[in-house]
Amino acid sequence: MTDSGRELDLVIYGATGFVGRLLADYLVRTAPDGVRIGLAGRSQTKLEATRAALGARAADWPIILA
């Protein structure tokens, strides 16, 4: 994406829920290289587990506590 001055291009709120996980799984497979994606939710532990389950491509996605 173009550099808009924002730190991330997309943040998935509720990333540990059913729909959030589906969206994260879809994006890890289909998002173009260079898209900056973050995972947001209320539980650090669950967010870390979700990110780990997504594999190496999501390993650098930041976690945001909401």
Shape, per Cα inertia axes = globular
**Nearest-angstrom radius of gyration?**
11 Å
Kindly state the number of beta strands. 3
Q: Which stretches of 5+ consecutive residues score pLDDT under 50? A: none
Report how far the terminal alpha carbons are from each other. 24 Å
Q: What percentage of the residues does DSSP assign to strands (E)?
A: 15-25%
Portion of residues in helices? 25-40%
The class by helix and strand makeup works out as alpha/beta
Largest sheet: 3 strands, parallel
* Major sheet: arrangement of strands: 1-2-3
Domain module count: 1
Query: Total helix count?
Result: 2
Mean pLDDT: 95
Please trace the helix and strand order, writing H or E for each element. EHEHE
Question: Could you walk me through the main structural features you see in this protein, from its secondary elements to its overall organization?
Answer:
This is Saccharopine dehydrogenase. The chain is of the alpha/beta class and 66 residues long. It has one domain (15-65). The protein has helices at 18-30, 44-54, and strands at 10-13, 37-41, 63-65. A 3-stranded parallel sheet has the order 1-2-3, with helices on one face. The longest helix is centred in the middle third of the chain and has 13 residues, at 18-30.
